[in-house]
Amino acid sequence: xxxxxxxxxxxxxxxxxxxxxxxxxxxxxxxxxxxxxxxxxxxxxxxxxxxxxxxxxxxxxxxxxxxxxxxxxxxxxxxxxxxxxxxxxxxxxxxxxxxxxxxxxxxxxxxxxxxxxxxxxxxxxxxxxxxxxxxxxxxxxxxxxxxxxxxxxxxxxxxxxxxxxxxxxxxxxxxxxxxxxxxxxxxxxxxxxxxxxxxxxxxxxxxxxxxxxxxxxxxxxxxxxxxxxxxxxxxxxxxxxxxxxxxxxxxxxxxxxxxxxxxxxxxxxxx
Length: 271
Known about the structure:
The protein has an 8-stranded parallel barrel with strand order 1-2-3-4-5-6-7-8, surrounded by 7 helices. The chain has helices spanning about 5-10, 30-35, 50-65, 75-85, 100-110, 115-125, 130-140, 155, 160-165, 175-180, 190-205, 220-230, 240-255, 260-265, and strands spanning about 15-20, 40-45, 65-70, 90-95, 145-150, 170-175, 210-215, 230-235. It is globular. It is about 50% helix and about 15% strand. The protein is an alpha/beta fold.
């Protein structure tokens, strides 16, 4: 998908599928381009990727037909501009808990290259843009998507206000942070966790905003999220998929060779 196609799919409620890429190796680009995916998710909040590495990754995936989503380290509009300048098609802002944060991010993602007083006045509708500038800004940013993480109890409490701000394309549930905020860390089978996730999906879709989740859970669970309203699915990661495959295959190899330790390796939990 191109950035424009990705944005249009989100807005239309069509499902898009991708995975988290942790590796900066160029060998992953042609491999992932051959898979039935629409986008890649690159996380600079938790993974140490510098701006030069990130830029070549985003442009490589763009030309491979996979729209690059990039999560910035904090909900900072300047960081959002940096990753868009580097080649990202979509900005993911972590741990957003207020409409004020969304407003600033919309200014960065949907009103580039405007800055400072000009963009602040336009967002506040104090001083409308001239027709020519309005058309220019619309076309300049048509392929950009803004996604915000809904990761906490306060963000769910503020969700209606967050969803009401024009320019937000999608909300993304972060299961780990949300479970911690709910006081049930990593207990993803608890009903209160499922209820919170479904609540986010339903309210977002009712407001005309796409909804997604990053999940490493079984496909059957992810289908349930889609049934509840999710239309952006970040499935697993290169690291998790590699670990699961190698753990299973090497444990099987050890067992077939008569090495009883294979069973113990197969039961290890991935970090």
